[in-house]
Each structure stands twice: as C-alpha cells, then as structure tokens.
Amino acid sequence: MPSPLRHRSTAMGLLLLVTLLPGTTTLANPWPGFDSPAPGPSAAIGAASNGCLAGARALPAVGRGFVSIRRERNCFYGHPVLLDFVTDLGASLARHSDRRLMVGDLAQPRGGLMASRHVSHQNGLDVDIWFTLASSATEARRETANHRDPPSMVAPDGLTLSPHWGAEQRLLLKTAAEDWRVDRILVNPAIKQALCETERGDRHWLRKVRPWYRHDAHFHVRLRCPGDSPDCQPQAPPPAGDGCDATLAWWFSDEARHPARSKPQPPAPMPAACHKVLEAR
Ligand SMILES: [Zn+2]
Question: What's the 94 CA to ligand 1 centre distance in angstroms?
C-alpha cells in the first residue's frame, strides 16, 4: 500500500490528468487507495451512494457470532454505530445458535467509491451480510475463497425460494429489521414476496425489507444517519405499510425483469466535507 502522502499526490495527479484529457468522462477514483481511516471524530458524510467516512473503525476479523470475510477487499470499516449493529446482531445469533454470520463489505477506510464501482457503501452505514451461516471462521473463509459466493436463497425461476432458505434466515432478517438503528434492508423480490405470503401477526418489520436487484444470497443493511453526523444525507423513508402491494408486484413484471439499459448519469458533485477526508493525513 502506498503511503497516504504518496497516494494522495498520485491520486490528485491522476485526477488532474483525466480532467485535462479532452473527451474523458471517467474520473480517477482516489478512495480505494487509502489504507487508514481519516483521523478525528467519527462522521458519516453525504449519502450511501455519494459520500465518505471520517474517523472510521475497523470491524474485527472475528467476534461473538460473526466472521468478517474477504478482508483482502479492505472494506471492513464503518461508522461506530455500524460496528455496534454487526456486533449486536452476531451476539443475538450466538444466544440461540452455534453458527456465525458471514459479514461481507462494509466500507473502505475512508468510505467513498469502491474500486469495483459498487455505488453504495460509501458513508460507512451499509453492510452486506450473507444469508448462509457458517459453523466456524475456517469454514466461512473456505466457503467464500476465490470469489465463490454462498448459495442463493432464490430458486432458478426467480419467483420462489430455494431449499437453502429456512427459519434461521427469516429470524436473522427479522432481528435486523427490528433494530432501531436500521433504515432499510435490501433483498431479492422473491424473498420479500415469500415473507409477504407467510408472515402472520406483527408485520410491521416488513416495511423496512425492500425489494432490489440480486440480493438473493446476501442482504444489504443500511442504517439511519447517526446523531453525530450532521453532513449525513438520509434517504427518503420507505412508504408507509408493509410493502406487500403493487410496488412489489412490479418487480415480477417484464419491465423489471428485463430492464432497458439506462444512460449513465454524470457523477454528482462530492459533498464538500469529503474533501477534508480525502486530504487528512
Ligand atoms: Zn451491499
């Protein structure tokens, strides 16, 4: 890893270079190069899809009830509230099971756009958690080595659930959705549909479980903006109700299943507070 100083001058040089090249539309992305968080108080800045993170904390490789996987991606940093959430979800699983959560990407040391150009996870409030549970850290690492993904919870028809789905997965999702820190959780539409059909009693938590593309082997948790982060930009809240309605049915339409290619949009300007995070030594 380059030193932050060398990294910064290299990144700035590249940024300048691509800005000067006529007809160039892709800017260099300086965020993946950082190997340390920006010092100072923790703050989530901007939006999940255009933001950054100050004073990040690193998720430990292993904790009670969880294993952090794919550490080589350097995406195991988050706002402290995100680390607390993962820690609490692992502890709650550990109270009734010997198995462990497999925790995937959080954010890079300073957040921002990932090298994979995965657009969210930028402000330290997003985490990917696999539906499959592991019996040990060793098994978790073995099962996800060489970019191998744990199995899908959705059948090949895209409409129903696979045999891998069960009571453990439902409880995991419900526990996460009922957490007050959670803003929303993205899952495959088939998973949401199955919950809509089978949940009895209190269905209030279904509101936070939102359908989205893929997300059939892992779910994506997004937290609310924490109180210590005035520059954090919240997403509009999910509509009222459990979401088991026409908006869910749309996901099974031809239009949703074969989406037309959308034109790439020019990137939104970076939040002003992220310039400091980019430049902090
Ligand atoms: Zn995600």
Answer: 23
Ligand 1: centre distance to CA 47 (Å): 14
Q: What is the pLDDT, as a whole number, of residue 11? A: 44
**Tens digit of each residue's pLDDT (9 = 90 or more) over 104-148:** 999 999 999 998 877 899 999 999 999 999 999 999 999 898 888
- CA distances (Å), 82 to each of 40, 93, 136, in order? 17, 17, 23
In whole angstroms, how large is the CA radius of gyration of the chain?
A: 19
Residues with CB under 5 A from ligand 1 (ion): 128, 220
Query: Amino acid identity of 170?
Result: R
Q: What is the DSSP letter of 56?
A: -
Which residue's entry shows tokens 């779910």?
Answer: 219
Give the Cα separation of 177 and 238 in Å (integer): 13
Report the alpha-carbon distance of residue 270 to residue 249 in Å, rounded. Answer: 35
Tokens of 123: 């402000």
Confidence band of 80 (pLDDT split at 50, 70, 90) = very high
**168 burial level (CB within 10 Å; 0-12, 13-18, 19+):** middle
**How many angstroms does the Cα of residue 89 sit away from the middle of ligand 1?**
17
On whether the CB atoms of residues 233 and 46 are closer than 8 A, the answer is: yes
Contact 21, 29 (CB under 8 A): no
Whole-angstrom Cα distance, residue 188 to residue 251? Answer: 9
> Domains, the chain, ranges and CATH?
40-256 (3.30.1380.10)
Find the 106 Cα to ligand 1 centroid distance in Å: 8
CA 131 / ligand 1 centre spacing (Å): 13
How many angstroms is it from 215 CA to the middle of ligand 1? 8
**Joined tokens for residue 159:** 């409409």
